[in-house]
Amino acid sequence: MQIRDLPYSDPGEPDVRSGFRLLLWLGRMQLGGQLKALGWGVLQLASFASFPVVAGLAVSAVVRRSGNDLALAGVAMAIVTLSVTVGDTMLHRVAVSNWITAAARVQQLLARRTAALGATLTRRVAAGEVVAVSTGDIERIGWCVEAVSRFSAALLTTLGVCVALVVYQPQLGLLACAGMLALALTVLPLLPRATRRADAQRDRAGRATELAADTVAGLRVLRGIGGEDLFLTRYRRASQQVRHAAVRTARMWSFIEALQVALPGLLLVAVVWYGARLALDGRIAVGELVMVYGAVSFLLLPLQLFGEFAMSYSFSRPSAARAARVLGLRRPGEDSGSAVPEEPDMRGPSQRWEPREVLFLSAGLPAGLYDPVTGLHAPAGSLTAVVCGDPDEAGRLAERLGGHPTSAAAETGGRSTNGPGGREKVPGTSADGTGRLNGHPGRSSGKNNDERADENQRAEQKQGSERKQLTEEGTQQPSASVLLNGVPLDSMPLEVARAAVLVQDKDPVLLSGTLAELLDVPSSGKVAADQALEAAQCGDVLGALVQSSPDAEGDPMRARITERGRSLSGGQRQRLALARSLITDPGVLVLDEPTSAVDSHTEARIARELAKLRAGRTTVIFSSSPLLLDRADRVVFVHEAKAAASGTHRELLHSDATYRAVVTRDPQSTTPEPADPRDQSAQTEGVESA
Amino acid sequence: MSHKDIPAAGEGRRSTLRARRAERFGVPEPDHDPSAPEDVTILPVGSPATVRSYVRELLRRHRRTFALLVVVNSVAVIASMVGPRLLGGLVDDLAAGERDLQLARITVLFALALLVQTVFTQQVRLRGAVLGEEMLADLREDFLVRSVGLPPGVLERAGTGDLLSRITTDIDRLADAMRKAVPQLAIGLVWAALLVAALCVTAPPLALAVVIALPVLVTGCRWYFRRAPHAYRAEAAGYAAVAAALAETVDAGRTVEAHRLGARRVALSERRVAEWTAWERRTLWLRTVLFPTVNLSNMLIMGGVLLLGGVFVLEGWIGVGQLTTGALLAQMLVEPVNLILRWYDELQIAHVSLARLVGVREIEPEAGTGTAPGGKDVRANEVRFGYHADVDVLHGVTLDVAPGSRVALVGPSGAGKSTLGRLLAGIYGPRRGEVTLGGAELSRLPAEEVRRHVALVNQEHHVFVGTLRDNLLLARQDADDAELWAALGAVGADGWAKALAEGLDSEIGSGGLTVTPAQAQQIALARLVLADPHTLVLDEATSLLDPRAARDLERSLGQVLEGRTVVAIAHRLHTAHDADVIAVVEDGRITELGSHEALVTANGPYAALWRSWHG
């Protein structure tokens, strides 16, 4: 495999049973490259090793005062030069190619797995792991896989040199070999430990960087309120701690380095002492003494390669384990296999499913979207607004409406405000029940090696159970699936369900890229981009994008949107996301609070245009804004997990006091129930500041 | 070669931007350059003069550590040359047929030299790390010192993204340069110079070999170093882009699934892999030229010493011993040469990052020459303002905010409400006209003075990494625990705060306990209570929260607003309803001004909107 042929058209099916097996699999997949690297490696090291021979020849020739021999040494020198140059360069090329192809393969596998996992990955435990694999682990895995061949080459050459030394000059050779062995046994065990220490120190440095980044991220707050000195002092302290830790690590390395000077040095002293005596006795020639001295110096090179390999292996073991774990993640109900979702076809699914729809319709089930749990019904072809007293419940209900819900809470349709158990959370005003995780799995700062090692072990033990958990959550059969035209959505293939119903959640993410790329989503093709942008009132967003993107030369479609649309305000982001959903033009569109951060003026216009654009299509909007509700064909008020009332906004406003209180937040209409905390808030609502 | 420089492919090596140049052979630069900045750099990048003066200052600060490094390094190198010298003498004696070699003396000398070399090598490594770490710590601390002194207007306009990427990415890139490149280069240069000097001392004619090899080395390296920095920078950026694409797919998991973007994300990842590996091929090609050049020059030196030296010995100009010593010294020269080449481009690459870091030094701190405010009334007078030289966002706005009153700014998106709010909070200075606080011009007051009177409250409720106490103390550093609890109580946050296991000492923010957005906003409000400014400008403070959380928070907010002047940028109409004065902002002008009743009676745009809202 050449680098130029990347990416792989098919990265293959990895062996994810364990980290070691993954490494093995990666090595097997590039067997040809490994063999080539082995060959060039042997050539390179053998050429290096023969330099002392040439030097010895030259010195011998000079001692013997033979010009011819010297010329011969010159020719030998030229040959050695050539083979060192070729061997070194080619080894480097093949080794780097092996590294790159292994890394690229894992990146591709990760991308495929991530795409297949989709919403399941919003669970942060898994998400953090994926990012950790892609940012740090892959380099180490590639390094280790690639180093195998160089290690083997070093091993072969070392053995060769030792054998040659022993054959050539038994006593000196044995002395050198014994010395090498002692050297390897002394230094090698230290390396992995030292590397781990360096790793821990990097984490600490990462912590300081994070502190700095955190301070900078909150800089506007600091400049607006104060406290710069407090945070500077704190950062200085962290920075100095990093410095001390780094110097401490460097001290350990400096001792290893000193050891690497002293031990081979001692070997050299011994060789010189012993060799000089042999030379004195006339048992070896002067040139040979120089040769042995050079050969022993040479042996330090493969020794470093051994060290590197030991290091790369100890580095990559936990990385490979994590990679195997991530690549082994499966969606609930997903069969194994690296399912790459096909580019979906808008017309396909509905056609394929039509016969069954008819079947169910004839059985007398309602057309449109129907949720048997709450009794919520969104008739086909109309705009239904849903008002939910509890925003968490609204989020879960919206997710259920799309079928194949990912969180357990959404499946059971229950009212528990906390996510799946075992997650620590600040108590109190739990505004969101989405089960926000606080554990930062990737972080292990400020911990020492042993703790880290323990963690790795625990993580490895956990891997099985975690995968199981992911599956369990999925296989818990939902109490009842939402029905689309009578067909249970959960029983449709995921792709088909997603194509039929688009649920835009409360926090839709804008993917970075140009505006054109953002809006290029699988769609019916019936709604043009400018139509959707206009309906979502994106005029000022386009202006802002053009201004911040000089490359676009005034064309908003070429303007760049930064990650998560951070350069835009909350309202602007919401409107772009809405435009994207409108372009998709799905049969059923579910929107959860699509305009909560948009000002009233603009919201009123969006409500009008949205109704116009979606005329004849099925649309469900979760909102409590009168401006949107007023435009809906029908409003359903969901109270305590049941569809409690329905009608037009105006009807409900007059007939239902609870509804009125939830929707208008109007100080004048909240007299009836003073015990309700919402009403107390009415007094201070004066400046909601939004 | 050491383990450090075998496949350097995985290491973060980056380089300067430079115009692409055509090459007739090998692997040309790929078309796509991932290191080309996609976001506009808003803050300045340091000029060469600024960078130079900063580097000089940095070296001056650490001249002692630097000198110490050079000294210990020299001792270590000189000690390492004793072995070859002794062997040379030995060879001389042996060749001359000497029987009494004084082997014991030589062995002891050799061992002594080894001891010195060992001790000093350890010191070199340590001193190098000390120097690198000191410089790195200085760099990052200097940068943060400068950053926290930036005028709020600059921050508001530039956003924190640019600064953030400087403190993370650029510091990261510099870390390797400072930690390794600077000390290693210093070590390599001293080392190589001493070896060449020793070669000259041993046998001056042998230095001829170095003279022969030098042109080859210099030519090859010049070729390489002209191209390498840019290529490595692009390569690293390309690799980062691969990870970034994946991270985004993970982050946007829900959206990706809902919109069925899976296949496209896979395709994007593969495109990123292709772009990255194209640069890997490019850098690999550059090294395919560099490696033979370096190998060739190394071999030229060694071979030259051996063969030329051999001829010289045959001619009787030098002895066999000198030849042996020279050959061994030449062999030792390989390592420092590799060291220099290995780290030189790292330094070139680091230069760009350094320029970005010191660029912040070029921003002028605020003048802060204004007189102290003589009252609490905020007044905008014929204010014109725009973010770009020729485009005004506000066209002559006049607004009086009486102390203790509540003003609501309403109007469509992009009309200039937020901009007006920021002018009233003293974050921007007007282009024309003036914004005054108690008669003093706000834009001329330093941030430290302004914030004693006015605060902007927006949706940015940053929770700092640290304890809850740290998060509150920043508003008033001398506050005691009782005051902190009182502030938390005032915003209704004492309930959950008391429930925390470690109370005020609980670690919150990223990495600690996760607080909900509503709790984060309560913390922000508690800070306001502590800072106690008399005027608040509220901009979308609760808009990103879901409605129920927003309701809870409005109660907290009510407590904070009590007794203060408030300018609220209202996006929900019921917010405006209660204000003393409502200003309708459209197209950068105030088109309607008055109380709710007055505006409804006037039957203008506000009245129309109110009716559709209220039903």
From TrEMBL, chain A:
For bias type Basic and acidic residues, the affected ranges are 448-471
ABC transmembrane type-1 domain residues:
37-313
So where does this one cross the membrane?
37-58, 70-91, 147-167, 173-192, 258-276, 282-307
Under the heading SUPFAM superfamilies, the entry gives: ABC transporter transmembrane region, P-loop containing nucleoside triphosphate hydrolases
Q: Which GO terms describe its molecular function?
A: ATP binding
The record gives the membrane topology as:
Multi-pass membrane protein
Which residue stretches does the UniProt record annotate as biased composition, category Polar residues? 472-482, 680-690
Localization recorded for this chain is: Cell membrane
Keywords annotated in UniProt = ATP-binding, Membrane, Nucleotide-binding, Transmembrane, Transmembrane helix
Question: Which stretches does the entry tag as region Disordered?
Answer: 331-353, 396-482, 661-690
Query: Where in this chain does the record put each ABC transporter domain?
Result: 437-665
Any Pfam family hit: ABC_membrane
What PANTHER family does the record tag this protein with? ATP-BINDING CASSETTE SUB-FAMILY B MEMBER 10, MITOCHONDRIAL, ATP-DEPENDENT PERMEASE MDL1, MITOCHONDRIAL
Q: What is this protein called?
A: ABC transporter ATP-binding protein
Upper lineage ranks? Bacteria, Bacillati, Actinomycetota, Actinomycetes, Kitasatosporales
